[in-house]
Amino acid sequence: MIKQSIQAWKILMLSLPKGIIAFVIAVTGLCASLPLIIVWVGLPLLALTLAWCRSLLSSEERIVTAWSEGPRGNAQSADMVHSPAFRWEGLRTLGQLLRDGASYRGILYSLLQLPAGIAGFTLALVLPLTAFSALLSPLAQGISSSVFSYDLNLLDPEFFFFLSGVSPDERAWILCGLGFVLLLILPLLLVGIGRVYAAWISKVAGTHLHSASAPLEVVHT
């Protein structure tokens, strides 16, 4: 469980950078290629954008499949067909990409991965920091009260009425206990969030992405 949660944390932390890259590629590629179609320059740019976005989705699906299904996922990920290297062979290449549903799923992934990455990255960053910060509450309260004569655990007496009779030091230890509980369940939370993220990738990719993404035919002249 610990190893799986660490891997989930890495996947979630990398989801935001990947989302930014995918979003920039999709938006820039579409905005640059579509207006230039009338002068034919946009055709290879559009094909490259579709192929690149599809490749990003395929790569992320292999990663989450290998994580979520363990050894079986590693074997399944190894069996998936990697996206072929892009090679412009005229309108035939663009036609193959436009007929392939994986191309549109790649664009969808590239546009929606940014908000999904923000959510995953935020949870993966905030939850561990919150747990460790709460664990250090007694130490921080002791330093603050003895050195700076300041109470770090100031509470709204109306909202936190159930803690109105508790001293600042006692509140610090209560926070420490809550942080310890959060730390204990943190692996479960990370794995759960990771599975939600993996389900999102699987949903947008389609169940049979590796079979649907057939390699482009290359015409040898």
Question: How does this model look, in words?
Answer:
This protein is an all-alpha fold and 221 residues long. Helix content is 76%, strand content 0%. It contains eight helices and no strands. It has helices at 2-33, 42-68, 70-79, 91-99, 101-135, 137-148, 168-205, 209-212. The longest helix is centred in the C-terminal third of the chain and has 38 residues, at 168-205.
Provide tags for this entry:
single chain, 8 helices, 76% helix, 0% strand, elongated, disordered C terminus
Summarize the structure.
The protein is built from 8 helices and no strands. It has 221 residues and is mostly helical. α1 crosses α5 (101-135) and α5 runs antiparallel to α7 (168-205).
Helix/sheet category: mainly alpha
Distance between the termini: 54 Å
Q: Overall pLDDT, averaged?
A: 80
Helix content: over 70%
Which outline best applies?
A: elongated
Q: Unreliable stretches, pLDDT < 50, 5 or more residues? A: 208-221
Strand content: under 5%
What is the H/E string? HHHHHHHH
In total, how many beta strands?
0
Q: Helical segment tally?
A: 8
For the largest beta-sheet, the strand count, sense and barrel status come to: none
Radius of gyration: 24 Å
